[in-house]
Amino acid sequence: MTLIKTCPVCNHSQLDGNFCAVCGNSFSAIRKRTTAVEVSTASSNDSLEKLKTDAKNFTHFLFQQLKSPSGHFQSTGGSLQNSILSILLFVLLTSAAFYAAFPASLITLSPSFFQVVLYLSIFFILVVAVNLVAVTSTAKLFSIQQSFSELTRKLGGFYAIPIALSAVSLLLTFVHSFTLSAILLSIAIFIAFILIPLITICKILFNEPESIDSFYGILFYIAVTTVASILLAAFIADTAIGEILRLFQF
């Protein structure tokens, strides 16, 4: 039985040969390219499906935290990725809300939206880093056996409420309700950078054996937070981030 070869490029059919007699394309090369396109398409579809699944899981994670903010704390199967995404989403929303909520503060230098969001995002991430350093150092000092990633997961798991407040604050700027927007933004920042890390370290200390004095643990946490905040303020003061913060009288 003779196999007739058909060129997929020009549709010419022939009985033998590795090259098309009309267009000259190699039959083997064509098959390889076709396979490569199929593999690439399958890989692209898999990536898209994974992205959709991750987005769905993250949305579900946020709704669960809104219903039960402390529900993730005792579980061990929580996603570190979702906690980190929560922190980053809060940082971006809060930075954008700052730009929109204080338009009068930006008249002097007229910085761009991208510049303000970038510098404020860096600043807020550094504040989160201060919180993590204080929580981690307190846990290590009192011999609490929890890794840095686990502490990050627990801290980031509380961020659903600040995210919601920052989102509402940003939406209020579209109807020019700047005063209420600023109030909600201040509450969101207080919860994210003061209340959440304090609750996190308190829950960690109080869940440990009685040999650990929780009162001294909290005092140590406050001391570390204060020192780290002063060092951060000194570092930020002479940078472009400091100039942006001074525009907001922050």
From TrEMBL:
The membrane spanning regions, by residue number, are: 84-107, 113-135, 156-176, 182-206, 218-237
Q: Sorted alphabetically, which keywords does the UniProt record give?
A: Membrane, Transmembrane, Transmembrane helix
Q: What is this protein called?
A: Zinc ribbon domain-containing protein
* Species whose genome carries this gene: Sporosarcina jeotgali
